[in-house]
Amino acid sequence: MLATLIPFFDRNMKVSAYSLFSQKENYLLNPERQSSALLDGAGRVSGLDIIQSIGIDTLSPDSKVFLPVGPINVFADIEEQSADMKDRLVLLFDRSIANTEDYARRLRQLKDNGYTLAMMKLPVAEFENYRAILDSIDYMILDCKHVDVMKAKIYFSHQYPNIKICVGNIENQETFDRLKDDEAFHMFEGAFYRIPVTRGQTTIEPLKVNYLELMKIVNDEDYELTQAADIIGRDTALVLSLLEMVNRIAVNSEVTSIRHAAAILGQRELKKWINTVITKELCADKPNEITRLSLLRAKFAEALSPAFGLAMKESESFLMGLFSVLDIILNVPLAEALGRVNVSKDISEALINRKGELADLYGFVISYESADWQEVCRMLIVKNVDVDTVYRAYTTAVSWYKEMFF
Description:
Elements: E1 2-9, E2 15-23, H1 46-54, E3 64-68, H2 78-81, E4 89-93, H3 101-112, E5 116-120, H4 131-134, E6 139-143, H5 149-159, E7 164-168, H6 173-179, E8 185-188, H7 206-218, H8 225-232, H9 236-249, H10 258-265, H11 267-282, H12 288-304, H13 314-322, H14 326-330, H15 334-341, H16 345-353, H17 359-369, H18 373-383, H19 387-405
Parallel strand pairs: 2-3, 3-4, 4-5, 5-6, 6-7, 7-8
Antiparallel strand pairs: 1-2
Helix pairs in contact: 7-8, 7-11, 8-10, 9-10, 11-13, 12-13, 12-17, 12-19, 13-16, 17-18
């Protein structure tokens, strides 16, 4: 199974929902399976297994999950399979749900049973033909690259005023800024929130300066624990976080000082902890999804590194993922941002030039989080990695994130 969660934001850049994208197997290895895939697991919605595996509470509090439901498993016993998470689910359909009375009746039944329903990938020319289906729909997701959303909102305001419009595939901040203040649109999705920064401010707030100084120290090849501990001591929040970490791993061990706490962690673990916690702190004035994106990339890359022949570079793989959005966090170009935290040449080469030992792993992580399954499947073949290994690495990353922040 391949699966990833893609965020939907409200107009204030708070995550309101996630859409689950999944694929059961590498169909490039078995192309004949592509046509029969819809019949697999007809009695169960496969995405429910994923959500139950990672835990729906791992996601942002109160966020909903758009769960794709196909033309076969729409007739499965969804009510029994998802009773414990019904309030958080939005069942997501596309035009594979035919405009027939059987489908319209089933959607009405799901709605009567308390489910929220959504439609996507429905061409404008089909809006009128799908009236029986649209009468049950709560959310319509419109791809702004293929649909004139300003004209579409007029249509829906007249014909289906109760349907909430979500705008998908927003590529840049300018488009989001133009749409977010329009009350006709409720949620927004796209790559706009993680666009690389090519220019930005040149000064950094005093607290961030301390954080960057600390990151620069620990990313030296052989740094001094005592020097790092002394800088940690300047920030109460970091001290408390360090002590919480030490108390979890050293039960009944009395910590006598910040330097002592740092020594208990050791050089390698202190470095990893500092980079992780400070990245989270630096994200404080950014959308919370930036924090999640950075940390999931870090842990996912680390978990995948052995499968990509990089078992000896797990730590660098982690930092590569962690710092992959540092330009967005610091609002400066990536090369400048990486220079401020003293990362290795391998990490810089992968993130800036897409070259070097770590480049393929980074490219894979980016393709995976975007649900570019064709590219993911191609790379799995090239690297001789199986689907289950990738899925375990992804769920490991999500579970780790949950343990850290929930």
